[in-house]
Amino acid sequence: MSKQARSNQALGLLLMLIGAFFLALNLGWLSLNQAGIWPFFIIAPGLFLIVLAVSTSAKNSILPGVILTGVGIFFLLRQWGLLPWSMDLLWPVFPGIVGLAFLATYRVAGRDKGLLVPAFFLLTIALVFLAINFHWLNRRYLEFWPVLLILAGVYLLIPR
After folding, report:
1. H helix or E strand, kind and range, residue 147
2. Chain-centre distance of CA 149, in angstroms?
3. Cα–Cα–Cα angle for 105, 149, 119, nearest 5°?
4. Terminal CA-to-CA distance of the chain, rounded, Å?
5. Cα distance between residue 98 and residue 64, in whole Å
6. CB 61 within 8 A of CB 111
7. What percent of the chain has pLDDT over 90?
8. Could you tell me which of 103, 2, 104, 121 has the C-alpha nearest to residue 47?
9. Cβ-contact 104, 85 below 8 angstroms
10. Is 89 helix (H, G, I), strand (E, B) or coil?
11. 57 three-class SS
12. pLDDT value at position 102?
């Protein structure tokens, strides 16, 4: 596919998103008076960057695109009351979103294995702290977290 065709696709998708937004306003599905609409102003540029990354050679725009879209969706769900918990419990979602952005960059921008290190680290942090915050793990087992470091060290010592 030519560069011009990919640019036309990105522009076409952007116009579709803008059109859908204004159609929702005209049909009364959304109101600019609603306090819950502001996350769309984070989601829209994020989606644009994702489309740009997928449809053009600007592959590295996937990282900020996924972060913006993920954060926007998170706040949209909070605005709609679908995530009723406090930010004290939900903060690990943010490193998780950045970890997913590194995974998406690995997938779209080339298979650079260096991107998997921060992705794994951030996703692990997010899952561990979500598990702690929501009591998915028994606190009694948390004293054994150094075992993970020992296992990682053993894995690194095994010849490949």
Report:
1. helix 146-157
2. 27
3. 10
4. 40
5. 9
6. no
7. 36
8. 104
9. no
10. helix
11. coil
12. 96
pLDDT digits (tens, 9 = 90+) for 59-113: 889 999 999 999 999 998 888 788 888 999 999 999 999 999 999 999 998 888 8
| C-alpha–C-alpha distance, residues 137 and 83, integer Å | 20
Q: What angle do CA 99, 97, 59 make, to 5 degrees?
A: 70
CB atoms < 10 A from the CB of 143, how many? Answer: 8
| Residue showing tokens 């605005």 | 79
Tokens (6 digits) for 103: 């995974």
| CB-based contact 107:63 (threshold 8 Å) | no
Query: Which residue bears the tokens 């690990």?
Result: 92
Q: What is the pLDDT of residues 112-156, one digit of tens each?
A: 889 999 999 999 999 989 988 888 877 677 777 788 788 888 877
The pair of structure tokens assigned to 78 is 């909070």
The arithmetic mean of pLDDT across residues 24-51, rounded, is 82
Q: Which two tokens stand for residue 80?
A: 């709609």
